[in-house]
Amino acid sequence: MNIQDRSTWQQFRLRVPVIAYMDDTSYLNSSGDKIQASINIATQFYQYHDVDINRKKSELMVINPKLPRDDLYIIIERDKSKVQATDKKIRYLGCYFSSSNSRKRSIKRIKDIIEKFLNPIRRKRNTVGHIAYLINHVLIPRVVYVAQLMTLSENEWNLLFTPVIKLVKQICGLPRSYPISALYHQYILGINNPWDQICANQITSFTYLINSNSLASRSIMIRCRAAQLRLAIHDNIFEHESESLFLGHQEAKSNLTRKLNIVIQQDYINRTTWAISGGNIPTREIFITYKCLNLLRKIGTANSYPLYMLVN
């Protein structure tokens, strides 16, 4: 793309109005009227096939509402049931969503899962192999699945997992000073580290999706392009120096660079579609030189047209 030639500019859009898995359906849109229209169409289909919508299990979540809370609702046409918007968390396919994304609430949910797992184990006798199996195949997959909607640092995961490590040491008859790294060692106890597991899952899923041809792949590519715009990166974001990408987001930075040492390269055919030219001096380099890279976040969100380069 040449910033001085509008004919080279491109727009990427993706609209996903509905998500369905088995008998669980979610309607997504930018306004209540559009969601109501989608529900009306679905209701007609359900009527043809004599299917009822369970009003008691229907929930409405509104993010950044502009109307009063009492005016936020939808109508299920068949029985004219009103579903009012809720401020509470909504559970969908085992994950929890909320109109106010509370970090403390998410961390508390993981703590509750861990505590619920540990309570029955404390009252029973377990062998070392048994407890390691339960942690690796029951607890960690559960918390990793729930935590896929949040980003926690390695230190935060270590704190969350402290009760588990403490119980393992008690069962094994080990002192508190026993090194935790030995518990994670493959040939000693072999307990999986939840943070390592999350990092591995994230990069595996990301690599698979960006190389596939699906709605999820297109969505990720649009998000990557949006990130490139917001960060004022003029070259390919996949091949950019990852140390300077995150603008202070320490959790993401530690996940992708310090721990995994990820290097992503794109094929030569599509590489040029991510490059931005038409100027002399990249503005991002100026911010890096004067060590004020965090200001790019404010500038990127305040301008409709990001400032990539200075032109003589």
Summarize, please:
With 312 residues, this protein is mainly alpha-helical. It has helices at residues 32-48, 103-122, 128-146, 154-160, 162-172, 180-184, 194-210, 215-230, 250-259, 268-271, 283-289, 295-302; strands at residues 18-21, 24-27, 73-76, 81-84, 90-92, 95-97, 281-282, 309-310.
Written description of the protein model:
With 312 residues, the protein is mainly α. The chain has 3 domains: 78 residues, no CATH class; 100 residues, no CATH class; 97 residues, no CATH class. Helix content is 45%, strand content 8%. The protein has 12 helices and 8 strands. The strands form 4 sheets. The chain has a two-stranded antiparallel sheet with strand order 1-2. Strands 3-4 form a two-stranded antiparallel ribbon. A hairpin with a 2-residue loop joins strand 1 and strand 2. The radius of gyration is 24 Å and the shape is flat. The two termini are 18 Å apart. About 3% of the residues have low confidence.
